[in-house]
Design brief:
- The complex is a heterodimer of chains A (570) and B (364).
- Chain A has 570 residues and is mostly helical.
- Chain A has two domains: 65-288 and 299-329, MetI-like (MetI-like fold, Orthogonal Bundle), CATH 1.10.3720; 345-570, Orthogonal Bundle (MetI-like fold), CATH 1.10.3720.10.
- Chain A contains 24 helices and four strands.
- Chain A has a two-stranded antiparallel sheet with strand order 1-2. A two-stranded antiparallel ribbon of chain A has the order 3-4.
- In chain A, a hairpin with a 2-residue loop joins strand 1 and strand 2.
- In chain A, helix 16 (356-386) packs antiparallel against helix 17 and helix 16 runs parallel beside helix 19 (429-454).
- Chain B folds into two domains: 6-240, Rossmann fold (3-Layer(aba) Sandwich), CATH 3.40.50; 245-362, Nucleic acid-binding proteins (OB fold (Dihydrolipoamide Acetyltransferase, E2P), Beta Barrel), CATH 2.40.50.140.
- Classes of the chains: A mainly alpha (570), B alpha+beta (364).
Chain lengths: 570, 364
């Protein structure tokens, strides 16, 4: 009977909130923060977009849409997003299917996971730089191998390729979970009814994976739409996209309003994706109802030759990814890639002298943002999952906004509101940290909610029946159980602080700069070796931190706690 | 510790259901559990038995009525102030604590010192036979072992009462039978008052001193297994405990503590019927299938029936018989010795007056 209990009515809830002063004060603080760092900037962006001399007006948006160049940018963004979505989903499905449906040994799965995780933890330019080293005018493949001199690496194909490699891991992680959740006995059933392998794939496995595929496509579309770094390096003048246009509008022409309007145009498709995901895809998921788990069955989805073919394709792609990173490392230790291949440490010397401030600033920002992000995720996740209060649903949605929006929009919105008194935060570390916490905290929030939903209420009741009051229960039972979510939130905020650029490029200053921004600067100054050295450094730092967190997660013996790879994908 | 009495006085609990609106889960339930007694709340799912148990534990608060544990009115006390031991259906072991830590949890909350905790946990783990598992984590244990940890964790704090919420429903059939014996043994050894919830009537009959049968939020009868089986007070209990034939019978005469009924065209004379029966009325009478005797030689003094269905179950066989004036279920034991009847066969059906049960409910 207890599962039939419905929520209290609103007035009861309100009354109960006021009886719990601790909860009430936490809620007030959270709402103040959410209002300040999420609602207010976004609202300002919208107001700035739709007003002209204090009056409501579509002039700004219409002006942008009338400009052929900007129209082209919108079209290009949508085209690129769709293509990256398609290619990345296909690639992700291929990898996921190979990993969970072909009886691979643990070693192979680990290898695929490792190759796939690399792009996820790299700073955004890594594949773009490696593309230039490979296919640029002096590229290893185009020039040294094929002897071509007049190819251009810039444009749609290279941007598409680079973004696909960078983002397909997201599709891989999404689809891997879905495919692994399809009970092989369901396929067995179809076999027993006389279906061939191909037919089982077409009529059972694929349809069950469709919601996951749709979700993967949307995630990749959104990631590509929001991607700022890759097009900045690879798209070139002939293929403008919205995020870079907005950036150039602001940094090149000091046109804050133009930037705001452009980023609003970007917001529309991004918001559409958010709505589709939340209200359409999430409802389409099939729940596997297979009753009691029977005997484990052997997976027989593919024939041996097919298995080898799939594995070969995945290996080829994994090796190309590894090749990119080897190339990046090589470029960081030679004098001038493409011209002078003498081994040298001078790029690293630059990194640790001239670049020291960026390293120090980034580490300070990441170091402060990390615990704050962890606490923020756990507190928000806990209250929206365990407490019944007025505005709970709203808080859940609002907390996700900055995460769902392209970084460019968040960056420009922050620039709009934190550039003037009374909130003159632009140029300080505070604003960069806030940006990261509210933008990347949601991963930890979702992990917290996922873990809390797995904790049966009877566990807390058991503690109560043994004499523990609610404080003791929280401290001894709930808190240790959500600790993995704390580390997840913390880890994601740290990693993104090390690797993100799209939002924070608008927020850096003389006093506070970031490694990713230095990489961009070095790219534009054509000091590619230094850029490569910076990238290698970031990859190494992130690797160490992820290793430490994974170790921690393993030490906290949580059955059912997510591992780091899945958290990154979310 | 002295065993205590549990007393429920007119408790009532309503839930707000998303679809059905207000649902009265428990309605005016009054119940007394004697000190040291093992009482089972038995009923189909949704009858309010778990809600009643959760109110005794303090996880739910009744809308009306009082709950006493011993002489203390605990209605307004939170679960953590009631000194109870609760065993959950899903065990609710703390997944991040090992067996020792799970069992020690309640003692730590009480602020006992390490030496005492070590000693008491060791004692209880030995009692449930899990000494070797102290350092294991819940997910490394089998269902039966998890169950015993849950039991150890509940009893180690020396609670005033033990409460069980369908604790065996996640175990397989053999283990279920074994564990119910263990639970009963432990309860007797500790001489502690226990309330146990189950929907399995056999389990209830095997384990309990008293059984309170619940239906639609009310207690419909309280009694020992024997009382419920032999003297059900209403149709629900008659049909819920074991299997039973419900048959229409006509009252022919009522006189001097006897009643004559017409059933399957025969008349039966019953002694000591409930009051209020009137000649000419048609009432429902109940006969257990196992009280019907079947014979191959159909004598003139016997009823006749044709076997329309037969289920062979080893130690017994169930038959469905087509009688003159209705169908009758019958169970014949020891088919090895007595043989079985085939479908289509005509058999002699023996019904003695003594096995015909008239409900007290028929008093009008």
């Amino acid at each position: 009977m207890p599962d039939a209990v419905a929520a209290l009515n609103p007035s009861d809830r309100l009354r109960r909130m006021f009886r719990d002063p601790l909860l009430l004060s936490i809620l007030i603080i959270l709402w103040a923060l959410l209002a300040l760092f999420i609602v207010y900037p976004l609202a300002s962006l919208l107001i700035r977009t739709f007003t002209d001399e204090g009056r409501f007006s579509f002039a700004g948006v219409l002006g942008i849409l009338a400009d052929p160049m900007q129209r082209q940018a919108l079209w290009n963004s949508l085209l690129l997003g769709t293509l990256v979505g398609l290619c990345g989903t296909v690639l992700g499905f291929l990898f996921a299917y190979t990993a969970v449906r072909t009886n691979l040994s643990k070693g192979w799965v680990f290898f695929l996971d490792a190759a796939v995780i690399l792009p996820l933890i790299s700073p955004p330019f890594t594949t773009a730089i490696a593309m230039i080293f490979s296919f640029g005018p002096r590229g290893l493949i185009t020039y040294d191998l094929l002897g071509l001199t007049s190819v251009s690496v810039y444009g749609l194909p290279s941007t598409l390729f680079s973004e696909t490699i960078t983002f397909f891991p997201i599709a891989y992680l999404t689809l891997k979970a879905i495919l692994a959740g399809i009970d092989p006995t369901v396929e067995d059933m179809a076999f027993s009814l006389g279906s061939s392998r191909r037919r089982v794939f077409r009529t059972v496995t694929l349809p069950l994976a469709v919601p996951g595929i749709a979700n993967a496509f949307l995630l990749l579309f959104a990631a590509s739409l929001a991607d700022f770094a890759t097009p900045l390096i690879l798209a070139g003048n002939s293929f403008p996209v919205l995020p870079t246009q907005a950036y150039l509008q602001i940094t090149g022409m000091f046109d804050l309003k133009g930037g705001a309007v452009l980023s609003f145009v970007l917001l529309v498709p991004a918001f559409a994706v958010f709505l589709l995901q939340r209200f359409w895809v999430s409802r389409k998921y099939y729940v596997m109802i297979t009753g009691k788990a029977g005997a484990k069955t052997e997976i027989k989805s593919v024939r041996p030759w097919m298995r080898h073919l799939l594995l070969a394709v995945c290996l080829l792609i994994s090796v190309s990814i590894l090749y990119f990173y080897v190339l990046l490392f090589y470029a960081s230790i030679v004098k001038a890639f493409g011209a002078d291949f003498t081994i040298t440490w001078k790029h690293y010397h630059v990194v640790f002298t001239e670049g020291l401030q960026a390293i120090r600033d980034t580490l300070i920002i990441a170091g402060i943002g990390m615990p704050l992000g962890g606490i923020y995720s756990v507190v928000v996740g806990y209250v929206i999952c365990k407490k019944d209060f007025v505005s709970r649903r709203t808080m859940e949605i609002v907390s996700m906004i900055n995460y769902s929006l392209p970084g460019t929009i968040v960056g420009i919105a922050y620039l709009l509101v934190f550039n003037d008194p009374p909130l003159m935060l632009a140029g300080t570390a505070v604003i960069i940290i806030a940006c990261y916490v509210f933008r990347y905290g949601p991963t930890g929030i979702r992990t917290t909610v996922a873990i809390l939903q797995q904790i049966d209420p009877s566990i807390e009741e058991a503690s109560s029946s043994l004499g523990a009051n609610s404080g003791t229960t929280f401290r001894r039972i709930t808190l240790p159980l959500i600790l993995p979510a704390f580390f997840a939130g913390l880890g994601v905020v740290f990693i993104r602080s090390m690797t993100a650029i799209s939002a924070t490029i608008f927020l850096i200053s003389i006093n506070w700069t970031l490694i990713t921004v230095r990489i961009l600067e070095k790219m534009t100054e054509l000091e590619l070796g230094v850029a490569a050295a910076f990238s290698i450094l970031v990859v190494l730092i992130v690797f160490v931190v992820i290793g430490a967190i994974s170790l921690f997660l393993r030490l906290f013996r949580q059955p059912g706690a997510p591992d780091m790879a899945n958290i990154l994908g979310g | 510790m002295e065993a205590v009495r549990i007393r429920l006085e007119q408790i009532h609990k309503t839930f707000l259901h998303r679809i059905k609106g207000e649902v009265a889960a428990v309605q005016n339930v009054s119940l007394e559990v004697e000190p040291g007694e093992f009482l089972t709340l038995l009923g189909p799912s949704g009858c309010g038995k778990t809600t009643t148990l959760r109110m005794i534990a303090g996880f739910e608060r009744p809308d009306r009525g009082r709950i006493f544990i011993g002489e203390e009115d605990v209605t307004d006390l939170m679960a953590n102030r009631r000194n109870i031991g609760f065993v959950f259906q899903n065990y609710a072991l703390f997944p991040h604590l090992n067996v020792f830590e799970n069992v020690a949890y309640g003692l730590k909350v009480q602020g006992k010192n390490t030496a005492d905790i070590d000693r008491e946990v060791a004692k209880v783990l030995e009692l449930v036979g899990l000494t070797a598992y102290a350092r294991q984590f819940p997910h490394q244990l089998s269902g039966g072992e998890q169950q015993r940890v849950a039991l150890a964790r509940a009893v180690v704090i020396e609670p005033r009462v033990l409460l069980f919420d369908e604790p065996l429903s996640n175990l397989d059939a053999k283990l279920r039978v074994y564990m119910r014996g263990e639970i009963r043994r432990l309860q007797k050894a500790l001489a502690i008052t226990a309330v146990y919830v189950t929907h399995d009537q056999e389990e209830a009959m095997a384990i309990s001193d008293q059984i309170a049968v619940m239906n639609e939020g009310r207690i419909v009868q309280v009694g020992t297994a024997e009382e419920l089986y032999l003297r059900p007070e209403n149709a629900f209990v008659a049909q819920f405990i074991g299997r039973i034939n419900a048959l229409p019978a006509k009252v022919l005469t009522v006189a001097d503590g006897t009643v004559t009924l017409s059933l399957f065209g025969r008349s039966f004379r019953l002694t000591a019927p409930p009051d209020g029966l009137a000649a000419g009325r048609t009432i429902q009478v109940f006969i257990r299938p196992e009280a019907v005797t079947l014979t191959r030689q159909a004598g003139s003094d016997l009823l006749r029936g044709v076997v329309v269905d037969r289920t062979f179950l080893g130690e017994k066989a169930d038959y469905l018989l087509e009688m003159d004036g209705g169908r009758l279920s019958a169970t014949a034991y020891d088919p090895l010795r007595h043989g079985t009847f085939a479908v289509g066969e005509t058999v002699g059906v023996g019904i003695e007056s003594g096995v015909i049960h008239i409900l007290k409910e028929e008093e009008k």
